Amino acid sequence: MHIQLATQYPENHALAVLIGDGDALSAGAEKLNTISSGYILGSLKKLGFKSAKGKVQILSALPDQPYTALAVLAAGDLTGLKGADVESVVASLYHATKSAGFADLAIDMGSFPAEQVAHAMFALTLASYRFDKYFGAAKLEKAPSLKSVTLICDDVAEVEAAFAPLKAIADGVIVARDLVSEPANVLYPQSYADRIKGFESLGLKVEVLGEDEMTKLGMFSLLGVGLGSRKESKLVVMQWLGADDKAAQPVAFVGKGVTFDTGGISIKPAEGMEDMKWDMGGSATVVGTMVALAGRKAKVNAIGVVGLVENMPDGNAQRPGDVVTAMSGTTIEVINTDAEGRLVLADALWYTQDRFKPQFMIDLATLTGAMIIALGMDYAGVFSNNDDLAEKISEASKSVSENTWRMPLPTQYEKQIDSKIADIRNIGGRPGGSITAALFLQRFVNNVPWAHLDIAPTAWTNEQRLPTVPEGATGWGVRTLDALVKAHYEV
Ligand code: BES
Ligand code: MN
Ligand code: ZN
């Protein structure tokens, strides 16, 4: 969808005006509208319109008016609107009007601060996201009727300046959504690494390690997962050096990038297995975050490391009971080949802290079905060895309407992942399945502040949960990590 700015009502557009608590219409409406606010309010009254934030009433085309239609958007307290409120009401307006029949909508944002108009552009960008590249002409025809939105504002240049960093964040979210949406025959470790290489144009430095390099590094925990796949496993390292001091200690993000998870020899049931194309969601969030940071030239040194592996059953696949040695030297008994994400992250985490000595390390992974059982679909679980980092993640996620919930890392559960023949085993039984997975990861983290985000609940949604997050791939976490960096780690 096209989103643009103007200072005047463009002809042949439907017009949306905002209505606040207590019948206040957006101030610009008075000067733009040839219709009196009394007329609008009277019509709303007749229709029994009850103002509730985000509610939209469409008034059909009126005689003697230039507008093809008039949409009234309830926005709450018009003077005290915050970025997040603007995002949610404007995204709701998009959904209420996208299939109303008109192609062009103008939203009267005159008199709103440039920052809020920028948040409206941001919300429209995220709300109108569609992954339609595999639709043929007939299906594309059925796309929403709404093709363009023009935001009427006081000062185009000022809004454009305010939108620039938000645009970079939206780009990052959309990169993550696109990656997660791709089927696994299109997105596999090599093709994924190639796509990441493409982001070098933003100023990211990208290195791709193949199986030979990883063998030399001793990453047999990660490599074991890829043994059953015809596709070569990859580890991709992204660097954004945006701090003035290029040697300043970086922050680091690590992602699980299992491009398809059949379960391996511990194979999953057929039903729903197609969902496992999004088992690379953690890595997509890392890539999206790096794109956002580079795109807005964040003053931080940031590292993104993603372990890209396909988990397949095959004559060469690893077996339940195999023992592998991770890069750290820790030996792992692989009881269940479907608990593969932790095996990938074990080496990716160790490599990251060993090479980059980061200020903190945050990993993201669609790690456990148990996380969905524990928290439902609206919260990602946060596990951390550091209260300060955990608190900062919580604040950052709240600030961008992404939900997180802190989970414990109780040492007494460590015995669940003890092995009879190796240092540890890769599953800890059903009780606290997400927790024992996190405890497993912690075995590969030394003294660095670390957090693990289990995003199995939030990486994908079968229904629209927030107006800015359509069904499908969510891009969850890009906004949280970007907000975290912005609030505390830019110098
Ligand atoms: N990728 C899955 C976890 C998952 C399940 C993510 C559903 C999103 C939706 C992970 O690799 C896995 O298979 N975990 C197992 C662990 C078990 C074998 C200990 C699980 O959750 O069942
Ligand atoms: Mn699995
Ligand atoms: Zn998995």
TrEMBL record:
CDD domains noted in UniProt: Peptidase_M17 (cd00433)
The keyword Hydrolase is assigned to this record: yes
Gene Ontology annotations of biological process type: proteolysis
Reactions the enzyme catalyzes: Release of an N-terminal amino acid, Xaa-|-Yaa-, in which Xaa is preferably Leu, but may be other amino acids including Pro although not Arg or Lys, and Yaa may be Pro. Amino acid amides and methyl esters are also readily hydrolyzed, but rates on arylamides are exceedingly low; Release of an N-terminal amino acid, preferentially leucine, but not glutamic or aspartic acids
Cofactor: Mn(2+)
Active site: K268, R342
Chief place where the protein resides: cytoplasm
Pfam families (alphabetical): Peptidase_M17, Peptidase_M17_N
Record's subcellular location: Cytoplasm
Residues bound to Mn(2+) 2: K256, D261, D279, E340
EC numbers, comma separated: 3.4.11.1, 3.4.11.10
InterPro entries hit by this protein: Leucine_aapep/pepB, Macro_dom-like, Peptidase_M17_C, Peptidase_M17_leu_NH2_pept, Peptidase_M17_N
Location of the Cytosol aminopeptidase domain: 336-343
Binding-site positions, Mn(2+) 1: D261, D338, E340
Free-text cofactor note: Binds 2 manganese ions per subunit.
PROSITE patterns, alphabetized: CYTOSOL_AP
An example Gene Ontology molecular-function term: metalloaminopeptidase activity
One GO location term (cellular component): cytoplasm
Keywords for the protein's UniProt record, in alphabetical order: Aminopeptidase, Cytoplasm, Hydrolase, Manganese, Metal-binding, Protease
Stored Gene3D superfamilies: Leucine Aminopeptidase, subunit E, domain 1 (3.40.220.10), Zn peptidases (3.40.630.10)
NCBIfam families: PRK00913.1-2, PRK00913.1-4, PRK00913.2-2, PRK00913.2-4
Function of the protein: Presumably involved in the processing and regular turnover of intracellular proteins. Catalyzes the removal of unsubstituted N-terminal amino acids from various peptides.
Family: Belongs to the peptidase M17 family.
Protein name from the UniProt record: Probable cytosol aminopeptidase
Gene source species: Asticcacaulis endophyticus
